[in-house]
Amino acid sequence: MSVHIGFFSGDISRSGGTENVGIMIANALADIEDYRISFISLFEESDQPFFAIDRHINRFTIYAEPTHGIQHYFDTCLRLKRIVLEQHIDVLVDIDGILDMYSLFVKKLTGVKVISWEHFNYLQNPGVPYRKLTRRWAARSADAIVTLTKADKALYEQHLKLKCPVAAIPNPMTKPDPEPVYDQESKLILSSGRLTYQKGFDMLVDVASQVLPAHPDWHWSILGEGEDRPMLERKIQEAGIGDQLTLEGRVSDMDTWYRKAAMFVMTSRFEGLPMVLLEAKAYKLPIVSFDCPTGPNEVMMDNVNGRLAPCFDVPSLSESIAALMNDASLRRDMSQHAQDDVETFELRSIQTQWRQLLESVVRKRS
């Protein structure tokens, strides 16, 4: 029996981590003979998606042009219902949990199964205050909830009266080809992500101002773009470290940057399961990170393949980075252990977990 799975996104053509992992999972499931996979976006601002989508996967849009606002709620639900019925979609996977507000309404109208996929963590409601309401609705009415970490699964079970299963399925780690060779002599610190409050780059500048002046032969590059750039440029200038700490903007060749780095540093205030840490792990980089909720302590092992600092302890994080800067053998040893638990994040294992979840949802009686 063929099963049609629709991955529901705000805009699958975007370049964000949510879109990246959504496409990775959809592409992996498209390899399964009995599965038909589609993407449904509220709209697509780009004709060509940033990340490559398997040629067997169809794409549908609810609106032809960018459309925002709660005033379009019922129209959006009716348009989504039409796609679900016309395309005979069996399961909607909401790539962002906020989309549950539409799909759970359509579930009532059509009986389509709904999986709510949480990419942040239960304690955070970035940008949308009614995300709390959709989480409660999902707990009552979704067919399953997927979190990225065991810690977040525990938060759902602790705070909500669940009427559906919660599965912790991590993001996959993609292994680079050719296999990376760690550069023990490198003196480049790497960080990346959108220049926004969540990523904590303001604290990164504070850390850099403590460690870089004492290490004039080191450089720290931040890859990414965002609304915090003007503020960060001012902070860097005021700290007098502009020659050593640079904002590189968006880069197309991440592979080259990872291959020439000595370590990766993350200063996020919160995460779901940070893809940047999985990428750093894939390139065998030692990681230094705040132990923010959630993800870092499930990606790395403290004092084995990196260092975790208490949130948001700037002096502690600075000390951890300085320790690695001062000891090439420590960096090498941590690099050698970077992939000790790599099987947890292998795509084949994660594909199997998703397949098992989807089959249990399809078998479930309404």
UniProtKB/TrEMBL annotation:
Molecular function (Gene Ontology), one example: glycosyltransferase activity
Keywords (A to Z) from UniProt: Glycosyltransferase, Transferase
Ranges for domain Glycosyl transferase family: 183-339
Domain of life: Bacteria
Domain Glycosyltransferase subfamily 4-like N-terminal: 16-172
Pfam families referenced in this protein's UniProt entry, alphabetically: Glyco_transf_4, Glycos_transf_1
UniProt xrefs under PANTHER family: GLYCOSYLTRANSFERASE (PTHR12526:SF630)
Protein name from the UniProt record: Glycosyltransferase family 1
Naturally occurring in which organism (per UniProt): Bifidobacterium lemurum
